[in-house]
Amino acid sequence: MISIRGVKKSFGAQVVLAGVDLEISPGETIALLGPSGGGKSTLIRCVNGLTNFDVGEIQVGPSTLKPTRDPRESRAAAREARRQVGMVFQDFQLFPHMTALENVAEAPVTVLGLTRAEAVERARELLARVGLEARGGHYPRELSGGQKQRVAIARALAMEPKALLCDEITSALDPELKGEVLSVIEKLKAEGMTLILVTHEIGFARRAADRVAVLADGAILELGPAAEVIERPQQERTKKFLERVLG
Amino acid sequence: MRWLLALAILLFSFPAFATLKWGADAEGGAPYVFRDPNAPDKTIGFEVDLADAIAKEIGEPIEFVQYEYGSLLVGVERGDLDFAMNGLEVTPDRVNRVRFSKPYYVYKLQLVARADDHRFDSLDRCAELKCRVATLGDTAAERLLDARAIEKRIYDGQSEPYRDLALSRVDAVLLDVPIAVYWARPDPKLRFAGEPIARGTYAIAFRRDREALAVRVDGALERLATRGDLRKIYEKWGIWNEDQSALGAPNDVAQESARAWTPGRYLPLLLRGALTTVQISIVSMALAILLGLPIAMARLWGPRPVQWLAIAYVEFFRGIPVLLLIFFLYYGLPTVGLKLNAMTAAIFGFGLNYAAYEAEIYRAGISSIPVGQWEAAASLGMGRSLTFRRIVLPQTIRTVLPPMTNDFVALFKDTSLVSVIAVVELTKQYQILAKSSLKYLEMGLVTAALYLMISIPLGVLSRHLEARISKGAL
């Protein structure tokens, strides 16, 4: 489904991705763990073209992202990749001037060309799937953090992506609100969605992810089945990281 | 302490021994009183010669004081001036307010038309043709036009009516013969239409309690008339005619009745001024808002040269006074063949000027939208222009609405500047009415109330919109 090959990326002198290879199969859930600044977020931003990379290649379904100097070419490639993958952000980024329903229905109308009625119908179904059928008429500022993040997930799903990129989607939430978002993710996994999760929730990664990749200093330190990596890490740095996170 | 008091007394009593202060308006005041084109620090004119002659006769020096024409009688009444002599027509309204001297000039009104326009040779024919006639405010000519219900256009200066006549912005000019002689006769594009009409007299205005001075000046005028000195002065300026032989007779009070300034009379005029103010404000602001957005977008995202153009636009129009811009658009552009009418010039002046401010407000508003909003839209497959239209612009509008409403209220008040191109809006109408009625306070309060009736609801509307938007409901 997604294949990342030899991706390197630097911001000036600072190397963020030092050559990353990763294969993700359809229906797989993979969790990216690792210390802050390790390159996790940059990696998934590369997958849907929000960030350009310097070297390597990323295959997303049938489309290929490559480093290019031509902004028009890179925009076209990014647009194709985004048809395959949706993204959910740490800070929600709902559109504040639209209701929850309008947030979800916006792109199906303006990008996919659905009629208003079709898009609203689809939006209602998706809000029901994330447990928010009663909140469609509310503006983002009238929703709790957990509700906002669930609307954001519904909004990404409205484009019918084959994979979903989740960038620390519970980091901005109070602990008691994390559960409602994580259970939506688990439901998606059960329905066969391909998921790439950047997360600090080790317990959740252990439970929900098929595989875990640990990124540090822009490289994959360890990669394997979730239980194996989390319970029996091979690398010294992975152990230290897990000890620190798990306290 | 005592010497300080003595000094103070000396200083305050000094003006009593000083020269007589003669008030007149030298701004565009030819041939009465005006700046010598060859030596602009010198004031010349037939009234300057007359003042010199009077000073010699009464043995007291007379000093010229620059005073706005429309406020001359107020200056006399306040005591700023010892007398006013500036082509003041003797009218019933004025006779009630000040002590007039004997007449020093018999004027008539001259209708002037374009040389190639032979449709009319009289004011009556002019009225039938529904001509638009230019004149100065608060003059016998204006009142004559009012009495015949002829559409008029009021100017501040004496040269502008003739310039606009030559540019076909008006059909005729009706003004006193001396003005027509000086400004229109040398101009080959203009012609005198018919004989002069509506005879009246100019006289010097004193405060009523300055009877002693007035009597001495009357004596001086009489001696100047009988000795032929007046004739010499008027011949020098080309304004002597047979009418002047009547000088020495008492004043002709113009044949018109005193006006009663009831609210019923002046309120409709103020309301019409307010309507003009509102029209200019709304259309200019619409223009500024429409023009400001592409300028802001050009500055944010345009290629380098386009960005420079946008920056140049903003800096240029923010950096020059809007008054200058309006004056330039109206009086300057006809030189290169672009003839805007007064309303259009006013609207473009304010529109172009305010577009610079609105562009900066848009730019700040657009920049304040988090980059995450662009990324969220991009991750949904929305392109840049779609994202701008659907996501960024609606949020920008909510942030720019309060500062733009502020600007609108400021523009609304700035419109008072358009009186320089003879648009009579609310403030100008107030000035005209207050000067001729002396009801500065009463009409001032009414005018202020009219402004507030518009600006306060605007403020309320802006706060209401702000509240609705911040609830996410707009």
Describe the strand arrangement of the main beta sheet of chain A, using strand numbers. Answer: 6-7-8-3-9-10
CATH homologous superfamily classification of one domain in chain A: P-loop containing nucleotide triphosphate hydrolases
Spatial separation of the terminal alpha carbons of chain A: 35 Å
**Name given to the CATH architecture of one domain in chain A:** 3-Layer(aba) Sandwich
Q: And the CATH topology of one domain in chain A?
A: Rossmann fold
- 3D shape of chain B: elongated
β-strand percent of chain A reads: 25-35%
**Class computed from helices, strands and strand pairing of chain B:** alpha/beta
Commentary on this structure:
The complex is a heterodimer of chains A (247) and B (474). Chain A has a domain at 2-88 and 162-246: 3-Layer(aba) Sandwich (Rossmann fold). Chain A contains nine helices and ten strands. Chain A has helices at 40-47, 71-84, 100-110, 116-129, 145-157, 175-190, 202-208, 226-231, 236-246; strands at residues 2-11, 14-24, 29-33, 55-60, 63-65, 85-88, 163-167, 194-198, 211-216, 219-225. The radius of gyration of chain A is 18 Å and the shape is globular. Chain B is of the alpha/beta class and 474 residues long. Chain B has three domains: 17-104 and 202-246, Periplasmic binding protein-like II (D-Maltodextrin-Binding Protein, domain 2); 106-199, 3-Layer(aba) Sandwich (D-Maltodextrin-Binding Protein, domain 2), CATH 3.40.190.10; 263-470, MetI-like (MetI-like fold, Orthogonal Bundle), CATH 1.10.3720.10. In chain B, 57% of the residues lie in helices and 14% in strands. Chain B has 18 helices and eleven strands. Chain B has helices at 2-17, 46-58, 72-78, 92-95, 123-128, 140-147, 159-166, 177-183, 211-226, 229-236, 263-301, 304-319, 322-332, 342-367, 371-379, 384-414, 426-437, 440-470; strands at 20-24, 34-36, 39-44, 62-66, 83-84, 99-114, 132-136, 151-155, 172-176, 190-192, 197-206. In chain B, strands 6, 7, 8, 9, 10 and 11 form a six-stranded mixed β-sheet that branches. In chain B, strands 4-1-5 form a three-stranded parallel β-sheet, sandwiched between helices. The interface between A and B is medium-sized, with 29 and 23 residues.
